[in-house]
Amino acid sequence: MKKGCLVTIMLLLVALSASAGEIRTWTSKTGTTIEAEFVKVKFGTVHLKTPDGSVKQIKKSNLSKEDQRLISRLTDPFAEKKAAETAAVPAKASDAMYGLFGKTLKNARNKKVSVDALANKTVGIYFSAHWCPPCRAFTPRLVEFHNEMTQQGKPFEIVFVSCDNSKGEMLSYMKEMDMPWPALPFGDDRKEALMEKYNVRGIPKLVIIDADGNLISENGRGDVTNHGDTTFDRWN
């Protein structure tokens, strides 16, 4: 037996012996706790033995993240390695996102941004232009909303689809408004397809889609205006 495998098994046995016969506090996602020792996991259900000898059952998914990780370490000696390997793989955007925007977007500095930056996120498609007074009134509010969602750790991003008359006007507008999100490259043929797909008859218009490209709302502007910081949770 290879030394690495032997060490892994020994560590697993130590962990099992430490927890199987040791009463500890287990916490659910809702915050309720139970004093018990770990017995086993079967079909996703954790069996815990309380001091009075009774066995309680709770779905592993209903435990706190910390306790779920502990269960994984107890039942799978390679769990942490698998998690690390998964985390090391860059997230990829869905095929729907590539279909809508291509592979590359541009930021306010005209630098390329991979569409993979949209992976696993709720996305707002923002049709706007610097020459449009209602746009100039709403954009600062949208920037504020975006920044607040980012600070809260919400998986949210915006893609600006410019209706400006030139690339220079688009970039100037993005810089002036401190837009932190990327844009469809100016002159990209996908602009017309997006405007037709989402029935854009006037601007500003904010369309909300999920990570797989499914429509959530065609009135994102009204949602943000009327519901403020609670809007993201309403979309999800």
Could you walk me through the main structural features you see in this protein, from its secondary elements to its overall organization?
There is one protein chain. The protein is α+β, with helices and mostly antiparallel strands and 236 residues long. It folds into 2 domains: 85 residues, SH3 type barrels; 141 residues, Glutaredoxin (3-Layer(aba) Sandwich). It contains 9 helices and 10 strands. A hairpin with a 2-residue loop joins strand 2 and strand 3. 24% of the residues are buried. About 6% of the residues have low confidence.
Strand residue percentage: 15-25%
CATH class of the largest domain: Alpha Beta
What do we call the CATH topology of the largest domain? Glutaredoxin
Spans of at least 5 consecutive residues whose pLDDT stays below 50 are 7-19
Order of helices and strands: HEEEEHHHEEEHEHHEEHH
Mean pLDDT: 88
Going across the major beta sheet, what is the strand order? 1-2-3-4
List keywords for this structure.
236 residues; alpha+beta; SH3 type barrels; Glutaredoxin; 4-stranded mixed beta sheet
Sum this structure up briefly.
Helix content is 41%, strand content 22%. The chain is α+β, with helices and mostly antiparallel strands and 236 residues long. Strand 9 and strand 10 form a beta hairpin.
